[in-house]
Amino acid sequence: MKVINIVGARPNFVKIAPLMEAYKAYPDIEPLLVHTGQHYDKKMSESFFDVLGIPTPDIHLGVGSGSHASQTAAIMTAFEPVVLEHKPDVVLVVGDVNSTVACSLVATKLHVPVVHVEAGLRSHDREMPEEINRVVVDAISSMLFVTEQSGLDNLKKEGVADEKVVFTGNVMIDTLLRQKPKLANLTTLEDVGVAPRSYGLLTLHRPSNVDHPETFARILTALEEIQQDIPLLFPMHPRTRKNMESNQFGERIKAMHNLRLLDPLDYLNFMHLMSEAKVVLTDSGGIQEETTQLKVPCITIRENTERPSTCEIGSNQLVGTQTQAILDAYNKVKDGTLPEPQIPPLWDGKAAERIVAALHERFAG
Ligand code: UD1
Q1: Which one is the CATH code of 181-335: 3.30.70.2750, 1.10.3370.10, 3.40.50.2000, 3.20.20.140?
Q2: How far is the CA of 70 from the centre of ligand 1 (A)?
Q3: Which residue's alpha carbon is nearest to atom 15 within ligand 1?
Q4: Whole-angstrom distance, CA of residue 354 vs CA of residue 185
Q5: Ligand 1 site: residues with CB under 6 angstroms?
Q6: Structure confidence at residue 300 (pLDDT)
Q7: Which atom of ligand 1 is nearest to the CA of 129?
Q8: For residue 242, what pLDDT is reported?
Q9: Are the folds of 2-170+347-363 and 181-335 the same?
């Protein structure tokens, strides 16, 4: 049984690592790893392979950046001959990035079943490029592996047949639990010069925040205030850095003396900073889940989330982008008035094992 596994962008690497490991228990599965090249900087890609022990990709498509249409089309054009040559039994895709949708379309049109890891999540916001990717991939997938209850509910509402859907838990949490013991040996906090629980960790890269000057300005006003209270560490995504260099916000960011700009960090150093933070402020999807697992307070600077369990039972507050709402959420963290968070069902480190077992049962032999 030959499975082609697709990765392209940073969060994909974190999700594929435990799956590549889980395949090893099945000698009759031949996994191939294809990297589309959507992310290509060493700090956005290669460092994750090194730290997480992901095998070197068997095939690298080298596609790089571009508009949505050109990037998606380039991945499709490059991936089609790979499917024709290797004739896989299954193509496995993770998450919701452009690489996920592009390869799913190619495989389905060549009549190769697609299986989607992290299926069913919905922000119900079609202005978000990832939401289009999720809806399309789920509509054409043969098996859908779901991380949380809302995923099951969404797929049911969309009329997906029950036998296609498997509730497996969360592969991103598999990686976190596997790597967590290594954090104690790191000196990340000393290197950056902060003490445990004394600082905030900030990430911002969503186009809806960093590409919209009015929204970005409101967020910066809140950050200006918070950094007067605690240091904020800001590892910057390349998209955000490029924006900052080309607009008026660079000066405002540099003027915040307690906001520390960092380059993108490798997985372990970032997790170390996250696990010891007093608060995490973010617009990422995966970070809402990782902070929930670590029980670290998270403030999500977005209007919606496709991961509602992180708010319903986890440590996440979804606050939108208004200055005062961000500050109110920060004050709740400071005052310690938030309820004790819980960890969602099956976020137990065994999702990849369940996924590979289900794949084997369905497709082997
Ligand atoms: C992509 C995903 C997003 C995910 C994010 C994680 C889509 C539609 N978006 O967004 O869901 O949360 O990855 O990081 O797939 N760039 C570099 N070096 C790199 C990669 C990108 O400099 O290695 C710069 C380029 O200017 C590029 C821009 O970042 O144009 C955006 O990259 P892209 O992959 O298009 O989208 P992300 O914003 O990274």
Answers
A1: 3.40.50.2000
A2: 14
A3: 97
A4: 30
A5: 9-11, 38-41, 44, 65, 96-98, 129-130, 205, 237-239, 242
A6: 98
A7: 8
A8: 87
A9: yes
List of residues 6+ apart from 342 with CB closer than 8 A: 313, 314
Note the pLDDT tens digit of each residue in 17-50: 999 999 999 999 999 999 999 999 999 999 999 9
| Ligand 1 centroid to residue 95 C-alpha, Å | 14
Torsion angle in degrees (nearest 10) through CA of 67, 70, 75, 80: 160
User: What integer best gives the mean pLDDT of the chain?
Assistant: 97
Per-residue pLDDT tens for 259-271? 999 999 999 999 9
Active site residues: 205
CA dihedral 107, 110, 114, 120 (to 10 degrees): 80
Token readout for 87 is 């004739």
The domain segmentation of the chain, as residue ranges, is 2-170+347-363, 181-335
Q: Residue 168's closest CA among 39, 361, 34, 354?
A: 354
Nearest CA to ligand 1 atom 6: 10
Q: Which numbered atom of ligand 1 lies nearest the CA of 96?
A: 11
Q: Which residue among 39, 60, 94, 245 is best mutated to probe the pocket of ligand 1, counting the most ligand atoms within 8 A of its Cβ?
A: 39
Q: Which of these CATH numbers, 3.20.20.80, 3.30.420.10, 3.40.50.2000, 3.40.50.300, describes 2-170+347-363?
A: 3.40.50.2000
Give the nearest ligand 1 atom to 285 CA.
12
Q: With 80 as the cut, is the pLDDT of residue 365 above it? A: no
Question: In 110-237, which residue ranges form alpha helices assigned H by DSSP?
Answer: 129-140, 149-157, 171-183, 188-192, 207-210, 213-226
